Amino acid sequence: MIKKIQLLLILVxxxxxxxxxxxVHTDHVYDGNIENxxxxxxxxxxxxxxxxxxxxxxxxxxFDDLSNRQENYKYTLVHCTSDWHTSDLDPSxxxxxYFEGDINNYRFSFNTLAPYIHYQLVFPQAEIRPKLSGNYIxxxxxxxxxxxxxxxxxxxxxxxxxxxxxxxxxxxxKNLKNFKTKQQIDFxxxxxxxxxxxxxxxxxxxxxxxxxxDNAFFGLHPTSVTPNELQYNFANGIVFNSGNExxxxxxxxxxxxxxxxxxxxxxxxxxxxVLHTDYPRVGGQYETYKxxxxxxxIAARSDQNPKIEGDYAEVxxxxxxxxxxxxxxxxxxxxxxxxxxDNSLMTYNGQTHQYEARLFLKQGYYEYWYAVLPAxxxxxSVTPVEGxxxxxxxxxTIYVYYHNRLPVYDRLVGVKKINAH
Length: 421
What we know:
mainly beta, six-stranded mixed beta sheet, five-stranded antiparallel beta sheet
């Protein structure tokens, strides 16, 4: 019976947000004036927002407020379950110090077409810090009662590294139909004796490809348990579409047109950047190059401070191909916060025979894919536009949770990030 349940989890893994009427925390910006929200670890824009419990690790939140009006922003931390529902803990259970803090670090933009205020928060701080591991939401709100004027929610992770994870992507998958087109994740967890109680029920594993949420596996339980080892040997394996390396463009400088940029026009309040028309890569040959797995990097010329001197542009995307029936096409990557929403949605132009979209972006380097979302589905696929190659340098992050009994919460006891090759 347990194996049947595990197989069912594999089949419905496409999206974690099951449960009608339940609130699930996501990365979200609730105000149209807030742009370029970043959350990263240890001062590195490309480092995932994961910190070790009780360590000196720091997270940095930054964002721009284009209203150009100084606000009294506050923040708090919300503990969540492994599937991102609010946990049953009280703030006093998982926070030390105060339950909220102020965002006092802000600077006005300088010499930009689009005026804005750049805010930055480095945490945890002595006055507010997590004292339990697990999934967390960073909530930013205006100085009021906390929930009526929420501006930003961002996910991050606090890990206590008690479990060792061994993982790899084998050349031959268990199901040979997936050979050379999909990537299988093989992994085991090695656990200390303190986790000997009910390991089959208490351990849960989530797996993400790159930084995506829509195609992640959630709530995987071990298929077998040996002394100090949890094994995850599903009949058809844990499999992701391989996809392709991301497309990219360099917009760090508006003074010259870099590769893949067709034109740059200075307007009154920002710039207009038109990218060269993209085409499907299905049926083409795989090309490898160094990339950041869909992340973006805010940067500018060497004589500019990108935090306050970086300017904004309306960036125009076009994808020349026949319209896909019963499906929508989205721009996927950190530049759209990995969201499948109205901001990342493309519209089809019947006259030009292409999908079109525009994004409001700050100076920097950007990577992206075109993803297709079938009608009625919540899991997108880049394969119909980008193709699928086993050689693709995807990253996979494995999160291991242990359901604690007293107090009741999901401890994050291991995180492992691997490259497919």
